[in-house]
Design brief:
With 394 residues, this protein is mostly beta strands. It has helices spanning 3-20, 53-56, 113-117, 330-334, 348-354, and strands at 36-42, 59-65, 71-78, 88-91, 100-109, 124-126, 139-142, 148-149, 157-161, 170-178, 190-192, 198-200, 206-208, 213-222, 225-233, 245-251, 255-257, 262-263, 268-271, 275-283, 286-299, 313-318, 324-329, 357-364, 374-379, 384-389.
Length: 394
């Protein structure tokens, strides 16, 4: 018999033996085989369209619910573990019964949730969940004061969100994706259509298969937003000072439910700057025209509504007199920045959800937003600016 033929037959016999002892053929001992549910995480629902999870998220809690939307188990992770690309949480078949369908939900922060609660400022507080808790009972609420009426001229009650420190960044569940392999997060394909419908590769549930690994990826959406405002004056640039103006946002968006829908409270909330300052450039001891008042604000998820009165409002007014200098439909103004990404054709709400760092430059005339004044909407990672000119039609 040919020696080469003998070697080939021997190799085939060895391969057959290995196959019979592989995980796929075993019927009793599966201890060495990957089984159960492996959950990865991804944060690529942003303007950069890149997975920033390991660089941005520092703490999370994963909740697993059964077909009846009752909590089966949960897992909290924080620290350096999350800094590794492809990090996953593994649930064994003993923890999650196979051949069942589960719903995955995540609440995440830029650091450990308990550590964040020990710092200054308003905090996000999530519902404490235990085994058997109903999914629909889960909420995340932002701290604010008791409602107070501002004045007889403004007989409306507002709740104040503390501005002594920036808000902690919070993420919620966007969708669940079926991943093909361990440590290989799936890419989020999500696009809002003009009619309001959504195209996505996400699912609401994941089925765990008995005797083999099931891989899933939870895609996150960032709720916490940042806005920088630079205020300048056309007629008297040398007189601009941040202490002369009150700048704030009025909205009704501090709380979200299990599906990240905003729970409108009875009273609106006010977000104020956590930092404000005045900058200028001097030449030979003389202040030039480049003098600006700056304000940094953080706030919860913005919603875009075609009905203007239902949107968040950005208000600027003179501190001494209380006179309103400028009043803007904030979601409408900010989502104009989507025009910088014409190739992706973002709809307003999708852009507001993907973007998280906004910048506005407001030029007043005669210390008011009036004819001749204008607003610059800047996209922070592109050399792109949109100028909105105030023009009187009378």
């Amino acid at each position: 018999m040919n020696v080469r033929h003998i070697i080939q037959k021997s190799m085939l016999a060895m391969l057959a033996a290995l196959t019979l002892n592989s995980c796929d053929m075993m019927t009793e001992d599966l201890s060495d085989c990957p089984t159960g549910l492996y959950v990865n995480f991804v944060y690529d629902y942003n303007i950069q369209r890149a997975d920033m999870f390991k660089d941005h998220v520092g703490g999370l809690t994963l909740y697993v619910y059964d077909e009846s939307d009752r909590l089966v188990t949960q897992r909290t992770v924080s620290g350096s573990e999350l800094n590794r690309y492809g990090y996953h949480i593994h649930f064994t078949e003993q923890e999650l019964a196979p051949d069942h369908t589960y719903r995955l939900k995540v609440a995440a922060m830029q650091k450990d949730w308990d550590a964040a609660l020990q710092t200054k400022g308003a905090k996000y507080r999530k519902t404490d969940m235990s085994t058997g808790s109903d999914l629909k009972s889960f909420t995340i609420k932002l701290d604010r004061s008791e409602p107070t009426t501002r004045s007889a001229a403004e007989p409306y009650s507002y709740c104040e969100v503390s501005s002594v420190a920036p808000l902690d960044t919070m993420w919620h569940t966007l969708t669940t994706l079926k991943a093909d392999a361990e440590n290989l997060p799936a890419a989020t394909r999500y696009h809002q259509m003009a009619d309001g419908s959504v195209q996505t590769n996400g699912t609401q549930t994941i089925q765990v298969i008995s005797g083999e690994p099931t891989y899933a990826t939870v895609s996150l959406i960032r709720d916490t937003k940042h806005l920088n405002i630079s205020l300048r004056e056309i007629d008297h640039p040398e007189q601009v000072n941040h202490e002369d103006y009150d700048v704030f946002i009025v909205d009704d968006n501090p709380d979200v439910d299990y599906d990240n829908n905003v729970i409108a409270p009875a009273d609106s909330v006010i977000y104020r700057p956590y930092a404000q300052w005045t900058s200028w450039v001097e030449s030979d001891g003389v202040t030039t025209a480049d003098r600006s008042a700056h304000y940094d604000l953080m706030f919860n998820r913005l919603r875009y509504n075609p009905i203007a009165s239902k949107n968040a409002v950005l208000c600027i007014r003179k501190r001494a007199s209380g006179e309103i200098v400028a009043l803007f439909n904030l979601p409408y103004i900010l989502c104009q920045g989507r025009m910088a990404y014409e190739i992706n054709a973002y709809q307003p709400q999708e852009y507001l959800d993907r973007e998280y760092d906004y910048r506005l430059e407001l030029w007043l005339k005669g210390e008011r937003w009036q004819e001749g004044a204008y607003l610059l909407i800047c996209v922070h990672d592109l050399p792109w600016v949109l100028r909105l000119q105030y023009v009187s039609l009378q």
